[in-house]
Amino acid sequence: MNRMIHVLKTVAGAAALAAPVVSAPVLCAIAAGAVPAQAAAAQAQPNPLDQAVAALRAISTMRADFTQTDRNGQTVSGVLTLKRPGRIRFQYQKGVPMLIVSDGKALTMIDYEVNQVQRWPISNSPLGALLDPNRDVSRYGTLQPTANPDVVSIEVRDRSHPEYGVITLIFVRKASAPGGLELVSWVALDSQNKRTTIRLSNQQYGMAVPDNTFRWKDPRSPSRR
Fold this sequence. Notes:
By secondary structure, the protein is α+β, with helices and mostly antiparallel strands.
């Protein structure tokens, strides 16, 4: 159980696959007029980074099953619930005494096994890229190379704050998903190079999610709060 708790803390404290898309470079033109035509065509193509940001902004609510794997291959699962702005809940499988919740301001990890609570500002976590794409993805995101035109991968890091870690968001093109891209996984790497991968499945969008979904029971005694 202690190893499993360590896995969960890696995802929360990272304050937590495929190959992305890049445009082919413009080839040297044989004819003098070829370069302007190709450049115009390249400019007409949508920017995958902008598409990814738009897709995240288009999600009002989302619920999905998730599996979480650490660098040693240990895996746990659960249900993720997302509601904008800034709220997320990782409800782990039965038998895992852990909960991770964001209320829009801070990411909180509750360890019911040892009655411990830890909190981080969202801005200090790689998950800030998921919860606040307007700030993080568009400013700090870079496309990662891929040979698959249906997969977009965005690496998000704040180079002025390496202690915040890195998150790589993986999207697959899907017409029925908000913004035409579906978030299918992400990889979080904390400042100590501890890697955690989250994979999503059975994504659902636009359902009613009450605000009390992001509340949690404090296991600490009143004197410790």
